[in-house]
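For anyone still unconvinced, we reproduce a single protein record, the chain in one-letter code, the fold tokenised, and leave readers to judge:
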Amino acid sequence: MTAADTLRFDHEPVPGRHDELRAPSGAVRSHWDPLVRGLQELGGAELARRWEAARRLIHDNGVTYNVYGDPRGLDRPWQLDPIPLVLHASEWDGIEAGLAQRARLLDAVLRDLYGEQRLLREGLLPAELVFAHPGYLRPCRGALDGTSWLQLYAADLGRAPNGRFWVLADRTQAPSGAGYALENRLVVSRTLSEAFREGRVERLAGFFAHLRDTLRALAPHHRDNPRIALLTPGPYNETYFEHAYLARYLGLSLVEGGDLTVRDRTLYLKTLGGLEPVDVLLRRVDDVFCDPLSLRSDSSLGVAGLVHAVRAGNVAVANALGSGLVESPALLAFLPGLCRALLDEELALPSVATWWCGHEQALDYVEAHLDALVLKPAFPGPNMEPVFGAKLAAKARAELLARVRARPHAFVAQEQVALSTAPVWDGERVQARNLVLRGYAVATVQGGWSAMPGGLTRVSSQRDSLVVSMQRGGGSKDTWVCCDQLPLPLTLLRPAGAPIELSRGGAELPSRVADNLFWLGRYMERVEGTARIARGVLARISDESAETEAVLAALFAALERHVALEAPLEADEDAFLAVLFGETPARSLRATLAAIHQLAFSLRDQMSLDTWRVLSELQQDLEDRDAPPPSPREAAAILNRMVVRLSAWSGLSMDSMTRTLGWRFADLGRRIERSGWTATLLGACLVEAHEDEAPRLEALLEVAESAITYRRRYGGELQALPALDLLLTDETNPRSLVFQLAALDAHVAHLPASARAARAGEERIALGALTRARIVDVSELARVEEGKRLRLSALLERTQDDLRAFSDALTQSYLSHAGEARRIETF
């Protein structure tokens, strides 16, 4: 290792801050030694190489975090620093005990405020903090009859200059980040495997095992095999990746509000096989949005009647509806007294110094010391940004204090904590950044609480930033709790030899998921069809011979109809490429790939990593929307890569997906789209008859991926009759029209029997289209009358009509309640 390659931890400490890495003497703290030695042995070049591989892994795994206003939107990769935060187990023991105590305390506060309200009667909490809080849900009072309100708890921790951790905020409503912490661990432990082993880092699986067991124990019914669902706001939520990740890791159904319904005060999942009862709901939707009937009427994220189902005891919600009430920062000022009153204990993990302005003495203190405080709203709202008093000009300070005096109960002031710093690596050198640690605790079935050993560490984007937030461009770290002994191996797998209930289901697939898989199949096939025709055009567009002009006219006609162009294509390379790779029309390559990406993100929990990676790679060539259209040579290379990647997706679908309803709906979409594409291509190339049809037949067979089969059967002589037989009626050819229609007919026969009455329409249409294609006389179709193959044209048009009717009938029978309906499109 050269001197230039040495990884140095000699960054300047930040004055007045606790340095996580170094003691005041400048020496590396003992529990950091294994990591620092391991990183220095690797060197900067090797760390850079490994971390580049880790970043590719993050991208390939689709780990994202949506920062509002970021032009990358759903594609913004998760920001992770390779250097973890290291804590010793002896220090963590005190933090774990403090987290457990706070979870018990806040649960007791919720049980009281939604129950007997002793705290209000005895003046331990001011009524203004409860009844003025929009998170106090009156319909939920008495809903749980004294049982636990919290199953999952999180706290944002900051370390002060004296080395002590303080709680900056409590998270009780739908604590996020635990899934990201797990993903951080998987990436960093793989990247720094040697240091991870030497550091004897506590494992995270035990925390998630407790969470899974606790959710199962909540089930009011079907305790042996409860249905547990994770309710997500959907793919546009900032932490949607985590929702899909946790659902898969814990074995839960990932659902949106539209997937659920309440009947007779029971919560059901709408599946293709009918309504299935849901026993437990792990929600990631804020309280007020969970029920438009009893709570916020304009919400489209929740389920009408959910509160009634909870009150009836037919479903358990974790955390309970209304638990966001105790997230108010104003509550921090009262927690020491509440802890003594409810638990008869002193608060072990203190809160940052907090003053609720509704008390006159507290308001006087805030006015006198605003320069050293951070002012926040006491209740959640659209304008929740903290205000740092030291940054206010005189006029702004006066205006702010006037607003506080007008509504003092709505404001809270907190001490501005000088956060500790930890080393981060920017790719070239180590620097210091401010950090906040989010710790997690989960209720156990034994009645206690267990903390995740570590948590999610977030670091500021700049050294002098006062706000540590992922939405402000900050990053994250893995958090290592290192112990003196080797940690016990933990896993979420069943114990060896434990009985497992066999299952080969599939009818429980939510209708929304089936709808998304159906359209994913259609869009993937649509892209392939566009790419195959476009390759045929690019191979001939620079040839000005009369024969080539006729071929181009046929391919242009096919592409114009397939992509639904309003204006005819021009036989000009630049103009053609501008249309092919442009934002419009709605069925262009770029637009269809964008639709694929959106659907794939929505189906993240349904996909294997290999399938996700193929879909991610499919977007790569067209990610830059501002880039000019590619040259013809570049375009040909892009189209070739697309076809190969689409073939990989097709292979994974055929070889890796179990033959459940999810696979059937994805393949139904593919077969409908390929049928329409084949009919369009045959119509464009063969309905109009010409004296010399060989060039068009050659292009037709090439684009339809059947040229080799044709040559093997018929040699080099190109005629319309054998080409029609191969591409229209040959059931051994997976590219033929009849092959697709036979697949549609076979799939329909395997759809849920409970919908048989409604299914008669699609069954009849599929069977009719297949029968017509099977019994047709190909020689009659090939016969030319007045320069056209009129019988072929009539059959193709009838088939297109059948495909549209089949898609409509299928949607009506199975997908009509899947959410916002997609516009019915022509082929």
Residues 345 and 678 are 75 Å apart (CA to CA). The radius of gyration is 31 Å. Residues 512-815 form one domain. Confidence is low (pLDDT under 50) at residues 498-507, 818-827.
